[in-house]
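Re: weekly structure request thread

Next one in the queue (70 aa):
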Amino acid sequence: NNQTYRDASESSLAFIEAHLYNQSNGRVLDEIDLFTCQNNNDGWTYEAGLYLEALSVLGFKTNDTTIIQK
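Done, posted below.
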């Protein structure tokens, strides 16, 4: 239960949700333009599985049901 790792995990989740997650179609994208911070909403990616696994592990380890419900 290391707070440093939890903080890093939550920051990573916030970044993914802000920049790589497309709420309109549920896709998690794997690239971002470093100059504009825009993603390519037309792409499809394997990153969705990694995102789901990370949500599951973070929710389980922290007992935070709001994370699991995402």
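The longest helix spans residues 3-20. The beta strands are 21-22, 27-28.
Next request, please.
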